Amino acid sequence: MEKLWGGRFSKNTNKKVDDFNSSIRFDMRMYRQDINGSIAHCEMLAKQGIIPKPDAKLIVKTLGEILNDIENGKITFSVEAEDIHMNIEKLLTERIGDTGKKLHTGRSRNDQVALDLRLYLRDECEKVCRLIADLKKTLISLAERHIDTIMPGYTHLQKAQPILLSHHLMAYCEMFCRDTQRLEQCVARINISPLGSGALAGTVYPLDREFVAAQLGMKAVTKNSIDAVSDRDFAIETCFVMSMIMMHISRLSEEIILWASDEFNFIELDDAYSTGSSIMPQKKNPDIAELSRGKTGRVYGDLIALLTTMKGLPLAYNKDMQEDKEQVFDAVDTVLMTLPIFTEMLATMKINKKNMQNGVKRGFINATDAADYLVKKGLPFRDAHKVIGEMVAHCIAEGKRLEQLTMDEFNSFSNLFEDDIYHILSYQACVDARNVKGGTATEQVTDAIFRAKKSLNP
Predict the structure, then answer these.
(1) Four-residue CA torsion sign, 342, 344, 347, 352
(2) What pLDDT, in 10s, does the model give residues 22-60?
(3) pTM of the entire structure?
(4) Which of 26, 357, 381, 427 is the most buried (most CB within 10 A)?
(5) Active-site residue (options: 78, 156, 253, 278)
């Protein structure tokens, strides 16, 4: 096959070189973006009088036919044509001859591929945003249904203070809200057109770059032609945002795995989202959560690989940058695959409310409230901390909980205790006492749920 760039070469490319050099096996997925970009470019060329309008009309019509044929499985791409851009140009010239060769006027593959990747990632990030919205809706729905479920809160994976399960779930909702914000900001930086930058120096033709950007729904054009073709910050940023999303999924997965264990027994995963053992008949494994946790490392790897690829490249374009696509595609694909099934797993799991509430009774998680009680009676906090620590040691020795101590026992540690200490130490009181913005009190969590629902349906 004659190369579109082969004019100065006297030999055919070695077959192994064709295979090594080709990216069509992975960049073929950008066919729609490539064709849409070419249509916008062609219409601009005609508008500017750079190519005849009848030629542009034929090119645009034929590109539409090629798109339709690709989507109907009628096209086989060629390794020898290297990439999606040259494959489509080859198909175009095969169908309409020399007229098709006019399409690439005022354009390089360097600015073309940068455009296609931006358009593709913009579309994929918008899909991710929608899936995160579904996940947030599921978390909010669970939080609403369990607004009265008290569970132990943990630090260092040790029981710390009583909290509402709803408050715990809404913490993850906050994380995914930030992910949405990062995605939106990332898309804003993606959605800038590099077309018209040429190979690196711009072009001699009177292109209307803003027209092309507007046709493609892009908000601006790049400001420096060298940067435009050598920049992959937007791809790296996309990988970073995908890594953050997976990190948050992984953290929640870790808790799901712990909570589903017999030692916690806080939840039971639906049979449809669990697996068994090939040897142990009793097993019910949280494989969806484990795989989600495991795939996080894969997405991290994509980010590190892309950062490493870019770290030593001089300006402007280098062929190393062809390696960007497999990394960012894999990162986005992994997130798109993980989010729906993870959301469904959460939506179908059973909350063992009684076990969560029984878990509150162990670990002296109302001890801080006992200390705060003494502080309100006038005892300095450090002294109150010491008194309650001694009481906890006493309870451990006697096999009691703080709220099971007699009034005489309370008074043996401090004469500031009165009968109202029993109400203070009730777990519901411990929760509702934390009625500050962002706290675990029922009033605050109810408000947080309301605001989160409103943000999803402004």
Answers:
(1) negative
(2) 889 999 999 999 999 999 999 999 999 999 999 999 999
(3) 0.93
(4) 427
(5) 156
